[in-house]
Each structure stands twice: as C-alpha cells, then as structure tokens.
Amino acid sequence: MSLSGLLFLLRNFHSPISSRKIKPLVKPTRLIISFKGLQYQWHDFVSKNNHNAITILALWAPVASIYLLDIHVFYTIMSAIVGFLLGARDRLGEIRSVEAVHRFFEKFPEVFMDKLHVAVPKRKQLLSSGQQAELNKLDASRFAPFWNEIVKNLREEDYISNTELDLLLMPKNIGGLPIVQWPLFLLASKVFLAKDIAVDCNDSQDELWLRISKDEYMQYAVEECFHSIKYILSSILDKEGHLWVQRIFDGIQESISKNNIQSDIHFSKLPNVIAKLVAVAGILKETESADMKKGAVNAIQDLYEVVHHEVLFVDLSGNIDDWSQINRARAEGRLFSNLKWPNEPGLKDMIKRLHSLLTIKESAANVPKNLEASRRLQFFTNSLFMQMPLARPVSEMLSFSVFTPYYSETVLYSIAELQKKNEDGISTLFYLQKIYPDEWKNFLTRINRDENAADTELFSSANDILELRLWASYRGQTLARTVRGMMYYRKALMLQSYLERMHSEDLESAFDMAGLADTHFEYSPEARAQADLKFTYVVTCQIYGVQKGEGKPEAADIALLMQRNEALRIAYIDVVESVKNGKPSTEYYSKLVKADIHGKDKEIYSVKLPGNPKLGEGKPENQNHAVIFTRGNAVQTIDMNQDNYFEEALKMRNLLEEFSQNHGKFRPSILGVREHVFTGSVSSLASFMSNQETSFVTLGQRVLSNPLKVRMHYGHPDVFDRIFHITRGGISKASRIINISEDIFAGFNSTLRQGNITHHEYIQVGKGRDVGLNQIALFEGKVAGGNGEQVLSRDIYRLGQLFDFFRMLSFYVTTVGFYFCTMLTVLTVYIFLYGKTYLALSGVGESIQNRADIQGNKALSVALNTQFLFQIGVFTAIPMILGFILEEGVLTAFVSFITMQFQLCSVFFTFSLGTRTHYFGRTILHGGAKYRATGRGFVVRHIKFAENYRLYSRSHFVKGLEVALLLVIFLAYGFNNSGAIGYILLSISSWFMALSWLFAPYVFNPSGFEWQKVVEDFRDWTNWLFYRGGIGVKGEESWEAWWDEELAHIHTFRGRILETILSLRFFIFQYGVVYHMHAAKESTTLSVYWVSWAVLGGLFVLLMVFSLNPKAMVHFQLLLRLVKSIALLVVLAGLVVAIAMTPLTVLDVLASILAYVPTGWGILSIAVAWKPIVKRLGLWKIVRSLARLYDAGMGMIIFVPIAICSWFPFISTFQTRLLFNQAFSRGLEISLILAGNNQNAGI
C-alpha cells in the first residue's frame, strides 16, 4: 500500500456517473453567482459585492485539487496493472510454495545447466544424440554440488534442522546406478505408498505400474530401490552370492518383460522383504566389525529365505547350472560367507540412503518448515526459469567489488547487550528466542547443546559465546550479517571456479568427482586465487582508526570480522596529529587494511589527503574517500543493514553480463537489483513496512525501468558500471543538505550523462527496514525532507529540461510528484473542511439551501451537499494487492490483505501520510533537510509518552487537533440536508485521519496501555513539561529546550512571511463563532468582533498575571498569591453574573473555547515566527508560557483516552497480540509472571 493511504473521491448525490464532478457544479455555480442579497450571519467583506466569490471557491477548490490527485491515482492503477503483466511475463511467482518446489524439482538440473552453468561439451553431445537418460544423469551430477552447498548454508544459518538437511541433500549421482537419484524429501514415504498399492492391487501388471507412475517421485523411489538393492548386494557379495543376486534380478526383469509379475511375485509378502532389507541395510551402514559382519551374513540369509519361500517364484529350468552352483554353496554354508564390507564412501552413502527410503514413513511434503528457508528456495528455483544472460566461466567473467559504508552502527551484539532487560524484564536474547523459536533450537543442536538448554549453559564456553553473539547478530541489522552475506560471493566463485577447473582438466574424472566438490573447493588454492581476482569486498569504516585508538568494542568486532573473512578489506580515515615548525599540524590519510596471519591489521594502501575529507554529508563522503580502493569493472553498493544469500550469489556472473546486453539506446550504467525485506516478521509494523517496500522495489521499479525508463538509484543493492561512474563524478554527491538523499542523485547523475538504468528480478539481496513506529517516522522524515531538497535541486531542473514530454511526466509522478500528491491529499482535506467551515460560519450555506428548497432546485441542493467518501487505500493499495497475487497467489493475497486490515494497517499508513506531508512541506517552506539517525535495533521497549509527544507534536498532533476542531465546528454550526447520515459520510474519513494522527503512536507502542506504565509516563511527561532547563540542557530533558529546537527551522525572512500567512487561517474560527453566540443577538456588525477581542485581551492580561515568576517576587510571595486568587475569583464571578444578567449562555462559554483556542494558537504561531522582534519587545516569556499551556492542553487531550483504556487489561493484551506474533505474546506474559519479586513484576 502506498503511503498516500487515503483517497477522497468526490461523490454527487443523484448525479450521472459519467459526469460526477464538473457538470453538476456548472449550473449551480451560475445560480450562486446570480444570487443577490444572500443572508450572511457575520459581517461580510468580500462575497456580497463580488458575486459570492468565496462561496464559489469553497465549492470548486476541492474539485480542482482532486483533479490534480487523479494524476497520481491514474498512474498508480496503470503502473500496477502493467507491472503485474510484466511480472507474469517474466514468470515471477510460478513457484510460490514448498509443494511447487517438490513438483518441479526434476526440472531444476536442466534449467540450472542452461542458465547458471558454463557449457559442457559432453552435454552438447548427449543432447544432439538424443541420449536423454545419460543427459539427465549428467545434469543431476553437475547440479548436485551446487544444491547441496545451498542446503548446507541453510543449515549453517540455522534455518533447517539436521533431519531436514539429510532430507534435502541430493545424492552425487556419480555411481553405477542408471537412474537419477533425487533428494529424500521428494521420495520420503513413497516406497510404503507403493507397497500398499501393490498389496491391494489385483489388476494387471500394466495397471499396477500405471497407478504407481501417476506419482513421478513414487516411480523414482521404486526404481531407485530396485537398482540400489541390486548394486549393493552385487558389490558386497562375490562368486555364488553375486551369482544369486544376478539370477534373482534377471528373473524379475524377465517376469516384467513377460508381463507375469503378478503371478511370479506374492505382493502380500512385500512387508516381509522390506523388513529384511531394512535389517541388512541397518547393519551395513555401521562401522565394520566381526560381529557386524556376522550379523550381516545372517540378515542376508534371512532375506534369501523370505525371497525364495514367501515372495518370489523362481523358474530354475533356464539356468540349471547356475542354480545348482548356488544351492551347493548354500548347502556348504559359504553362499554369503565371503562378504566384503562396504567401506567405500559412495557405497556407504547408497546403503544409508536405501535404509532411509525403506524406513521413512512420514511425508516430507512440508520440508523445509522454516518460512525463510522455503521462501529462499522458492525464489531461487523460480528464478531458474526466468530470462537471464548465460554465465561465462569465472576466469572470463567481469570482476567486481562490493562496497559498504559504515559509521558507528552495531557490528556484533555483545553478551551484555543481549542480556540487558527492558522495563518488562525482556532481553533482546529472549525476544529473538520467541520470534525465531525453530532457529534457536537448530542453533543449540548445531553447537551440540540440548534443545532445552538454558542460556547460562552457553556462557561456560568461549566458542559458544561467540556463536551465540553471531547467531543473534545474524538476525539483526548488523555489519556482521552484511559481511557474512557479501562473502557468499567469494564462496560461490570458489565453488564455480573449482568445478570448472576440474572439468577443463579432465572431463571424465571431473564427472566422477563433481559430487565431492562441496567438501574440497574451499581448500583449493587455485579456486581461492581465482575468486580473489574477480571479487573484492571493501567496508569503508570512516572512524575505525578513532574507534581502535579509543579501544571501542566496535573496533575489536571489526577486527574479528577481518580475521574470519580473509578477503575482507577495511578502509578508514586516519587522522595524524603532529608538530611542524613549532605549530600543530593535522594530516588525513585514506587507508586500506586487512588482517594478517596473526590477526593484526596489515596496511595495504595509504593515500594522503589534502585536508579533512568530510565536507558534506557523512555517508557519501565516507564512500567517496574509499571508492579508490575498489577494483574491477563493476561495484555493488551495499548498505550495512543488508544481507545476501549463497544461492543468489551463484547468479552474480549472469547479472554482470547485463552490461553487455542490449537494453535500449545506451548501454546499462546501473543494474537495479530486487530487494527482499527480511525484517517483516519482527512485528506488525515491520510487516507493513516490508509489504510497502516490497511493492516499491519489485512491481514499482519494474515499471520505472521498463517501459517508463525513469528508474533512478533508490538504495543499495544496485550494481554500478565502475569505470563509467568514477570518470563521471563518482557514485555519491555529498553537498550538505541538498544531497541528503545521496542515493537518488547517483541515478540523476547517471541519467544526465547518458547512462541507462535497468532493473533485474532474477536475483535478490536482503534488506533490513525500520521496525518501530518512531524509527519508521524518522526514516520517512529523512526521505521526505530529502525529496523536498530534490525539488530545489538543479538535477531535477536539468532532467525536466532534457526529457521528452512523456518521460518527463513519468519522472514527475514517480519522484517529486509522488510527495506532492501525498501532501495534496492532506491539503485536499483541509481545503474541503475549511470550505465547509466557511459555509457553516458565514451562514451562506444555509441561505442558499433555503433558496434551493423554495425553488425546488435539486442541482443546487446536490452541489451544496457534495460528500467525500472514505476509501482505505482502494486505489493506492492496488500495487501491493497485485504484487501479492502475482507472487503468492489470489487466496494468500486476500488473506494477507485482510490480516493487515485487522492489524490496523490503515491507521499506520494514514499516520505515515502525515509524516511525509509534514517533512516534505517543511522542507519546501524552509529548506534544511537533515539526516535523522533511526537506529536499527529491535524495538522491544516501551516508548514513553513524552518521547512520542516530542517527536509527533508538531507533525501530527497539532494538525490532528485542527482537523478535529474543524469537524466539531461543522457539527455545531453546519447545515446539512442529509442529517446525521450526511454528516457521517462527510466526516468519517476526516475523523479517521485525525484520530490516527493523534493516537497511532500509542496504539503501536509496546505496553502502551498498561496502567503502571501510563502512570509512570504521566509523571515523566509532567516533569519534562515543567522543567525549565538552562544552558546545555537537551530537549529530551526539558520542554523549554525542546521548544527552542522545534523553532530552529524558522530562520529566514521568507520562512517567517510564509509561516505568518499560513497562521492567519486560525483567526477564521473566532470571527465566525462569535456571531453565532446568543450574546451577539444576531447582530452582524463589526462591534461584535471587536468585543470578542476585548475579552481575549482580558484573558491575555489574566495569563500575564498567572505567568508571573515566583522567583522574581521572592519577597512578595503572599501578595502574589493574593493577586492571583482575586483575579481568579473576579473572572469566575464576572462569568456567573454575565450568564445570569446578559444574553450570554453556558453554550456561549463553550463556544468561546472553539473561538479563542485557535486564535491563541494563531497568535502564538505568528509570535514564534517573529521571535527576534518578540524578544526585543520583552514578550518572549509570556509567549513561552502560552506555548507551554497549549502543549499541556494538547497532551492532556491525548493522554486522557489512553489512561481510560489502560483501566481495561484486555486492551493491553489485544495490543500485544496486535504488535507481535502469538509466540512472543505468550512469552511476554510468561516473562511477567516469572518476574516474581522483580521490582518490575507489576509492570
């Protein structure tokens, strides 16, 4: 779902569908223009003598803004449809389940050899000669080492268990069997199903085989057992024993050829044969010993008895001499005495596999069970059927580098960080164990610990501690995870190089050894050298030298990563301070280091810089100083919160070939790569962010690249043509503020210099996203502010000048136009509500309606009762829904979308709409976008009320209360012909938006409705609100310091003027409401309005009295209290007398709140905009007191409903289930119970 989350469609009651917006307004507009003498309930300045101009504006302005929004709506719909069709054409989503992986598995070796393997001469010969069986066997033998390495990496990553590993591993297919041996997860339980069919079948041999062959893998299991038994027995028996095996299997083959299998074999006795074969295989798979050998002989003799006396009818007439020899040997007791124990690894593996085939009775249809493992295998196998360039040999492929900027983020979680508990007693380790329970069990098994082992048991071993830290870090957004993922490129190249070298040196011996490659390739010097020639990984850790000098744990962890990954290179800026000519001198060096054999840093390059390289934004400057250390033809830019997978690394050769493919007029300069957001399972918010991001990086960028040709560089897995970019300005623009979103400027730069940016979805890279609402808001604030700066940049101007008309429009709606339409969505609500407020407060709406009723003019009545209907992402959700359908199926897409609705995704997207609008609009008005550090940790802590208030007060709370106030005004004074139903249709969308903006931060706040937390939050908030602070006090500690920080963006004369103009809208409330009071006596003279200002002046004086500083009147405390008390009593007495003696009513007093609160905020907004002048006038303290009063009031309006909800425990339980999955919810409750005497046990 796009973050334009709300679309409001204009609906005219009783109007034709074909002309819903314009035509119904034309005739009423003419009538309103012609109306004279309309009755206004306030003193009118403009409309009465100007053809009711403002009334016309109130009716037409929402229509005009909706037409501008329609551009975005039409693009969203069309791009979703086109992206869906393009994805279907590219065969995305054809394999979307484990069941599909099982069904298509036999095709994988062939397509793998076609796409990811270099050409094999023998394969071409077999293909041309039509030897399909030999070709299948060859393909399987080449595919097996790659598949097995993929599966082993899944086990090393703890996504699958040891049992699943055994089931997923593929036999080497290099033995003497004439068939392809498939992994056990395809054949599990198939033998027993075939046995049951055979036992129950009374039909002919052909019918029996037809029933078995309906399931291809059942057929393969039966054939493999037949050939394996023959091969194993023939290998371990000699002379007469070998002859017996030959005669038995020849007899079976002859019986099959004569179609007599039903009469020659008693299938009812098959269970006995299987039992004896299991006994034989069970003994032979063990280590050789005298007892084992004797047991094997006895087991084979038992098998002989069962075969001859119970199962098989043997015709001795054809081979009398052979059978006589066999019987003589049996009589003498030497038929099986010369048994050769199977010590050969290949034969031993075959015996173990046969034993598994004959003993596994449970289906493996759901293997692998882990969702991430199955997702990865589904995508990899699906990508084999997609269009991609053919791979070159490793020795001929383009060389490339991977480039990751790092500053001071987490490298590895320490034990202290994993054990640190939050207020609920929940540690990060506990959180991970509950979120990934199966992976935790697999991890304990891998380090040879019991599945139920306590955490403390692991702390006794230094190696287990390191493994624990790595396990946790590989599930977070850490540098360790990124490094592990990117080093898979080297591992993949080593495997590919090793196998290619074997094939080129000796094809036949390579065919025999291919299955052993997965155990030897990492130790091959030639493979390692070839991989290092083609791949370089540089992590540019800007302050690594400083961290190392200060003994920071990050430096030690980076050093550990270098020791564990010999190909890893670290670039950093070294600052050397010295004294030259008696003066202090500072020199800067860009350095590249690696770990030597002793684990110490070894300097490779040191480049002296002319000065401090950090002149602009930090991240791009970090990249710019180290880009010289990259090598090769291409460079892949990777953020430090990304991941990679071994199976995807196998396709890097294919991706690099895209640089030489035809993608249009210009050769590709940036290859876009698909991303998978791996943080979606952490919480519901993470899931929303993941689905939104996935929609953009797949379907969205698919359309941007083709056919629109306006895809830019939106993040870091893209692959740059290194030579193209380092000779044309580099990959990172670093000017402060304007290049805050440095990624997309690389795309701008590439396109302006006649580059071509493509997008490819047969390969994917993992990507972490923010998982907490505050993190998400900060990230979106950064992106929206960066987009605001793009609007002001010369790059956008030049692209707009150089693009053709259609490409320019495409570029607009996909970059700055998206944020403009996002902001316009909110502005449309404001325009509509302020228009309705004008019609209500001025009274002109009721006056026109009365004339329409008198004249019976339905068109005029319809125009006045135009409604906005609420659409929860009906159109903007289309890309996400179609993406779900394409890659997950219709049913799964429907369930996922409904589930998101129940998890309040609409609230989240509406809230995000406000975030983007605020920061984009602020940047347009004032400039000054800035980088906002979001943090990439796990959000398991409760966010305090004050922290949320500081972050969202101006971006959401103020605007939400303004919308609510407009709706209350219209409810109180508006005229609606449709009654309550009309008001609901009019306001439900706006109420939803207002409530989402006000309460979403607390709905999505862990433990946000627990009473004890709420009490502590209120105490913390009041302490923060009334702490005056001082020099050096941060905004987190004092309201005054925070308030000053919030005003920092208003610093230019232009900004002050714009803020003043925008603040004038708040004065319409007082102007309209006072004329509706009973005290006004229906008068429309200006004197009524001036009297209201006189009352406001009195309230202002009262505020000055109550804001007197007690410290300044330390010697007159009693007098000060007396003055304040008298003032309060006088006000209350005057109010009572006015109500009793004048037309003023209690309702008028309540109405005055609606009038004066917005006016006060307007005065306050103008005052802070002109802060320097207000300070010179000596009024700043009063303004600050007024601002504190408003923040206290807004806080209470938000806090009271939260406190009421916290009285009901079930709300807190529902919220926990809403935010986290069921396992974590149970774990959280158990943790609270087990806390016992813990000081936080009651929390």
UniProtKB/TrEMBL annotation:
The organism's place on the tree of life at top rank: Eukaryota
Q: Which stretches are annotated as coiled coil?
A: none
Every Callose synthase helical domain range: 183-360
GO molecular function list: 1,3-beta-D-glucan synthase activity
Which Pfam families does the UniProt entry name for this protein? CALS1, Glucan_synthase
Q: Which GO terms describe its biological process?
A: (1->3)-beta-D-glucan biosynthetic process
Any single Gene Ontology cellular-component annotation: plasma membrane
Q: Which residues form the Glycosyl transferase domain?
A: 367-1065
Keywords (A to Z) from UniProt: Membrane, Transmembrane, Transmembrane helix
Positions of transmembrane segments: 809-833, 868-886, 892-913, 957-975, 981-1004, 1057-1075, 1087-1106, 1118-1141, 1153-1170, 1190-1211
Name the PANTHER family for this protein: CALLOSE SYNTHASE 9 (PTHR12741:SF47), LYST-INTERACTING PROTEIN LIP5 DOPAMINE RESPONSIVE PROTEIN DRG-1 (PTHR12741)
The protein, known as: Callose synthase 9
Species of origin: Aegilops tauschii subsp. strangulata
The root-end lineage is: Eukaryota, Viridiplantae, Streptophyta, Embryophyta, Tracheophyta
